[in-house]
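Give me the fold.
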Amino acid sequence: MKSSTVVIAGIMFTAVGIAGFADDGLLRRNLGAASGASGSGEGVQEASFGLVDKGARSTVPEYQQVAQNTQQPAAGTTRPQAAAPVVDESALRYFASKGDTARLQAEISRLRALYPDWTPPKDPLAVPRNKDVQLETMWQLYSEGRYAEVRKAIAERQTAETGWKPPADLLERLNVAEARARLVNSSDLKQYETVIEVAAGTPSLLTCSEVDVLWRVADAFVQTDRPDRARDAYLYVLKNCESAPERLATVQKAVSGLPYDMAQELLAFERTAPGGVAEFESLRDDLARRFVAEGDGDGKLAVDPKYIQRLERLVETEGLASDALLLGWYQLRRDNMAPAEQWFRRAHDKEDSASASQGLALTLIARKAHEDAEKVLYPWRDASQDAKATYFAATANLLAIEPPVALSEEVLARIAQETTKGRDPATAQQFGWYARAMEQPATAAQWFTTALRWKPDDEPSAYGLALSLSQLGDTAGVVEIQRQWAGRSERIARLGETEEERRDAIARQQQPPVREPVPATAVQRTEPVVVTRQPAPQTTTRYVTEQPVAVARQPQRTVRSATGCRTSINPAQLSPQAALNRGWCLMDLNRPLEAAEAFEVALQAPASQMREDAAYGQSLAYLRAGLTNKAAVAATRSKQSRGRVEELQSAILADRAIAAFDAKRYRETLIFLDQLGQISTQRTDLMVLRGYAYLNLKRYAEARRIFEAVAATGNRDAQRALADVSKAQEIWPNK
């Protein structure tokens, strides 16, 4: 794209034919701005939201001809009598003979713009037949969309007949048709900069007779982060075009790609149809759903109350759980917990789903109904990472209630199982405090140890372990913890002091205050915060080293430990459960290939949950070993939760993108990164990788845009990459 003919501010739209082909009066009212004529129908009006340099208009035949036909005489002079121009009407006759009314009307509009004094023939079929048979053939090939064959026929005739020139009309139409085909193809291939470039060079495409082109250009602006230019393109259609279906479709496309405020600006151009019905009324329900959903994604977005009220009426009349969910999430994002719970409960009662259960659980956590929250979300705990995080928020806060709640054996067992499976340090820590409250220091010590294995810098768990070891009489264990946390935790260092020493220490420096559990909110859906309790020390008894249990009740699945798999054995000799545990243990020791063998045995288990865990573990093992293709196969060997599927797909696509880049298959690299972008947010290092792929393909503008965006975050690799782009452009300045 040459800067001399392109202005990044937008696209310059010619209004030739903007009113459609049948309404000539309206068409003439839209002409005239280019020459300074007013209301005369002479000249070409320009609607500016575009990319074409005004200085480039002289290269367009229509601009040249209109300028010649509309030149004004000097004041006090008489316009000289000009010879009547010869109008080529052969295309009219040809399109009429083929019954192609669309092209016939387009040709009439074009000739009227070029020759204001020209009157269309009443019967185009009466126009004398072009005696040039070869030219007739060219017109036929053009009408059939066989543009390459038209070019070939022109070249062959110019070779055979020296001095023969094709009609300017045919060449212009051929150029426009080829440009349209290129623009559509580029749009389909998501080559958005090319779409904008072609549109800039072919302003005659940007009219109401080519609304599909206008849509594609608007989409190109959206995809290249220029929503204001896209809004202008859609506004052009709503301000100038008359086709009711096309106007309706324009609004549908616009609201799906533009921000809320811009969508409201477009909707202001709604017209009233005969009978008093608003032309976009059929879209109102879907618009309400879309805008409320946008409000769910952006807690600061103030959605017009009319959309909220319309959606509430839809819930009453249609009773869809999905509509109630939209209202629930909208209210939750604004901390309106009472109405949010009302809508989530309504959706949950109508159709129990992961989203309804998660939303309802969040509102229950907010009002400290943690036991109810755990019960509601337990069946959907593996539906997504958000659901898992919310479930652990409920369990951790449930165990943190003061005074402790007496939970049933079933609830304790399943919380313990999920905690060990999900390796959640917050819930493990709260299990430790819960066990201490139930006067089970040995179990408490096990859970604190487990929490520290998953999160070694968790000071409250270290403090809880020290308290429990002290209570169990394990002085050596307490001393070891104090050594590990020396200089990092004063209360651990002072553990074991006499009462008098403690009073003196408190007088010198007050201990940190006790923190209470914090309710999860909508903002905490991804990673809910659970603040720990810190009880005072208790009396000492004995300490036993066993795996953590759910407070004196053995969980269905124990925590995996790296100490039990250091020796080599044949996993085929193990039961599926033992093989599964060994697989995770080997993963902790970073022995992925051996872990994959153990998971293979576990895949033979009759229990579906165990097979799912085994397939998940084997896929992770192969990924860690760099065997991406095997990881992809392993991931399909058992049904997985959506959260796990997205996790594995993201890891596999990232590995494949890196491998393709290392193999210098840069286009393949971009394909994998595009696929990855559809399911997850790309990491900074992968964005840099994308930039270098563009750089190696000599797509410098795209590479620079990526590197500048990443460099703005302070990333040094991206900052160095910008220098690489500059050096490359010095070598290949025209790329």
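Confidence is low (pLDDT under 50) at residues 1-48, 50-80, 510-563.
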